[in-house]
Specification:
Number of strands: 8
Order of helices and strands: HHHEEHEEEEHEE
Strand order of the largest sheet: 3-1-2-7
Helix content: 40-55%
Number of domains: 2
CATH class of the largest domain: Alpha Beta
Structural class: alpha+beta
Largest sheet: 4 strands, antiparallel
CATH superfamily of the largest domain: YebC, transcriptional regulation domain
Length: 188
């Protein structure tokens, strides 16, 4: 019987690792499709696409999957990028970057996740003002991706940090979410 238990443990660990890898692959490949659609499909002429392909290779995404993502950019299936804004525990600003082919479905899913994890969905623009984006738009010539920086980092309690981490983890587990940024200032 002990062998069965060990196999069961290995199976569950492998399943968790595979799920995480699949989620990472999906997010990177969706970003590649959007970058190829919005810019040149040639990585030599599109720094954002080039950096995403490098990121895919760093994460061991197979070349055939990358090629499929590039081909998908030319298909009629429309992928769009958007921001979802929310408030987390203790009023922390939460900004979610997502890529989807069905905005209504994704927004409803993110609203549900936010509400189920102690957050509150916010109107467009009500959270965005709390962040600065030094290299917004296309990446800088060096190929770095855009990033958000909280203008007013907010300290929160240990209980708030714990609840915020649950919220961020739940949001990041959504297939369409690329990145989650908060205005929380977490002390060691």
């Amino acid at each position: 019987m002990s062998g069965h238990n060990k196999w069961s443990q290995i199976k569950h660990k492998k399943g968790a690792v595979d799920k995480k890898r699949s989620l990472t692959f999906g997010k990177i490949l969706a970003a590649i499709s959007v970058a190829a659609k919005t810019g040149a499909a040639d990585p030599d002429q599109n720094p954002r696409l080039r950096s995403l392909i490098e990121k895919a290779k760093e994460n061991n995404v197979p070349n055939e999957n990358i090629e499929r993502a590039l081909k998908r950019a030319g298909e009629s299936k429309e992928l769009t990028e958007f921001l979802f804004e929310a408030y987390g525990p203790e009023g922390v600003a939460v900004l979610v970057e997502a890529i989807t082919d069905n905005g209504n479905r994704t927004i409803q899913g993110l609203r549900t996740i936010t509400q189920d994890n102690g957050g509150k969905p916010a109107d467009a623009g009500s959270v965005l003002w709390a962040f600065a984006a030094p290299n917004w738009g296309e990446p800088r010539p060096d190929g770095r991706e855009k990033h958000w920086i909280a203008k007013f980092p907010q300290e929160i309690s240990a209980a708030g940090v714990e609840q915020l981490l649950k919220l961020v983890e739940a949001l990041e587990s959504h297939d369409d979410v690329q990145r989650v940024v908060t205005s929380a200032k977490v002390n060691d």
